[in-house]
Amino acid sequence: MLSMRTAYVAVYETLADWEIGHLVVELRTGRFTGVPWTVVTVGESLEPVVTMGGMRIVPDVTIADVEPDAGDLLVLAGSGQWDNGGGDAFAKLAARFLDASVPVAAICGATAGLARAGLLDERKHTSAAKEYLQATGYQGVGNYVDERAVVGGDLITAGPDSPVQFARAVLQRLELADERKLDAYEGVFHRADPAAYATLVG
Length: 202
Fold this sequence. Notes:
This protein is about 35% helix and about 15% strand. It has helices spanning about 15-30, 80-85, 90-100, 110-115, 130-135, 165-175, 180-190, 195-200, and strands spanning about 5-10, 40-45, 50, 55, 60, 75, 105, 150, 155-160. Keywords: Glutamine amidotransferase, Transferase.
């Protein structure tokens, strides 16, 4: 029997829970892919954090416990910390994952944190807006793509208005579903197209 693949999900104060909700549910349940994953929450410490939506999360492990080669994905949501210049420890963790060729998925404010760390300079990416990332002083504006979600090698990025496209792009990068099923996924959860449901569950 194949061992379950592992997604590390970074958790911190004011985590934007809705941004990664679609993705984490599809990974953990495998309900449309047939491949359930283990989801492990990662904090700077084991102290509970409270999300933007007011949910209290107790991290499973700390950053110090995480080895990129023991995982298959790192997920970074937006939060107030990124816009306050924080999140360095998680940006460093992302750098370790990318150096090990393990995918990193970052949405909203997390993209700004990765931009400040220089991780977007050489990789295709997107975010809330080009100007948002330019405010970090990063050097990657030439690799900015004005799309809902972008796969740039091992890096998947999206803006805060695109949680469904973010989930779709990550599932695509992880090769968990073909284009037909991915389009049906976006059809159901973004376009509210009832006709897409049969393809999604088929």
